[in-house]
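Re: the 237-residue chain
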Amino acid sequence: MSGVALVTGGSRGIGAATAHRLVAAGYQVVTASRTGAAPTGITVAGSIAMDVADPESIEAGLDEVVKEHGSISVLIANAGITRDALVMRMSDEDIDQVLMTNLAGTIRLCRGVARGMLRAKAGRIVLVSSVVALMGSAGQVNYSASKAGLIGAARSLARELGSRGITVNVVAPGFVNTDMTSELDEQRRSEILSAIPAGRYAEPDEVAAAIEFLVGPAAAYITGAIMPVDGGLGMGH
């Protein structure tokens, strides 16, 4: 495989694991993160600083990628944040920052890459959602709403872009061994594990494997789909 693949939130966790897989598959991978740091243990084509909560940062970052590497043929919209609190204690900033980063920023990224994909009559977009998008999660009203919004966005984009050879899909991870979940206390980790049929957390590479499949040639007829990678936690939702 070849082409330019942009992975947001690509410096660590799921994003870094995805970058590793796509480089090995032959893509020119550019990672984006707020710090601009590249993932460790791999040589990517480029790494840029991008704050997906900032429309100007998104536009500048996309322009930089196209100028330096060419048109973007694959977008992995993985960047996301949490600001957890019970809704009665959730501040306006907690709501705004999560929705701007996780949902509005992703929509802007898709808008930014769509024109080049339409010209090429080909493209792959994968949005990284979450099991809580469909299950809900106490203390995560903002996060769950933002991740649920990605499903509606992806399916609408799939309808808009599908006739031009562009697929848009969603990966919905469960709880993954990343920096985000490492902040949970032991009691909460035990509660979560007891609810997962597989009895363990996912590894970032297991989510990355699903993403790699969805951007590859074998998934050319899959669009508007939600692929859970959650050990069975969200079954039935």
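The mean pLDDT is 95.
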